[in-house]
Amino acid sequence: MKHCLNGIRQSVILVTIITLVLSNTLFASEIADSESQKKTENKVDFSKSEEFSANMFPGQDATSNEKFKYATDSLWDDLCTLPSELYHGMGRIYLQRDNFIALLLAGGASVAMHASGADDDIADNFEDHKVLSDFSDKALDFVGGPGTHFALTGVWYLASAYNGDELNKQRSWTMLKALSYTGFTTLSLKLIRDNDTPNGKWLGWPSGHTASSFCVASVFDEFYGPAVGIPSYLLAGVVAYRMMEVGDHWGSDVVFGAVLGYITGHSVAGEDRGKWEIAGFDVVPYRSQPNSYSTTMGVSLVKAF
Q: For the chain, what is the domain count?
């Protein structure tokens, strides 16, 4: 009876989430149209914009303080746009037809696993057949943690901006956006579902470690292909295994978390990658080294062979 009630509760939660997202999307689309019109009316002439020039990379000959200030200012400016990005992008990503269907199926699988007692059977099996050492447990907990992913992405962004590597700066920002979508959605679902894990911790469904790890793997797969994507997915899978073995999550928590992270990472990185490419070449801003005569600005096409 308890499993049945939990299953009904999860079903109600899923329907409620879908309704809220649909309402948010309709409202967001109206605002987006309004903002788009405002941007069209207020286009900036970059050739005469002091603000645009001031926010460009100061050049390799700049002092360390100047490059560090550029990197931190650039990160702060991007972070200020994050709430708006999340607000307007939630519906675009999660209500895209294929993504929506995949999330519904993953949600249905979670309900079925928990209501049927499969979660209990999986947890009991892991309890009886542990293979990870204490060191492996702690290492995977750290490697798969959302906090670790955010911190390393922030370092990636700052290092790229400091060195004037615009392509990796854009990629790190995409990773940061994907992690933010995943983290916000995961935390929201956890607070709504509010169930305990096998080892008695709160906020079980879905698994944040699993969602974040698969999000990172999906972004890497979009950027660098199978050579980096496949090992990243394998590592994410090991993190998911760890979450179940130590009792930090039910099997249903891990299933939905993996699907959520996979969808979010591919969707966000796929959108941004399409914006940066022309005929397979990466499009990056270009600025010549400042000299006493003139400074040339534009875009450059980059491709690794």
A: 1
The tens digit of pLDDT for each residue in 169-221 reads 999 999 999 999 999 999 999 999 989 999 999 999 999 999 999 999 999 99
Residues 6+ apart with CB under 8 A from 221: 228, 229, 230, 232, 233, 265, 266
Helix (H) or strand (E) holding 278: strand 277-278
- Both tokens of 111, joined, read 């309900």
Residues found in the chain: 305
Containing structural domain, residue 137? 2-276
Geometric angle at alpha carbon 204, from 200 and 205, rounded to 5°: 155
- Phi then psi for residue 281, to 5 deg, are -95, 140
CB-based contact 216:260 (threshold 8 Å): no
Question: What does the pLDDT average to over 22-34?
Answer: 41
The pLDDT assigned to 305 comes to 53
Q: State residue 235's pLDDT score.
A: 98
Helix axes 208-224, 251-276, angle to 10 degrees: 30
What CATH number does the domain containing 234 carry?
1.20.144
What secondary structure letter does DSSP report for 288? P
Q: Between residues 238 and 298, which one has the greater pLDDT?
A: 238
How far apart are the C-alpha atoms of 169 and 62, rounded to whole Å? Answer: 18
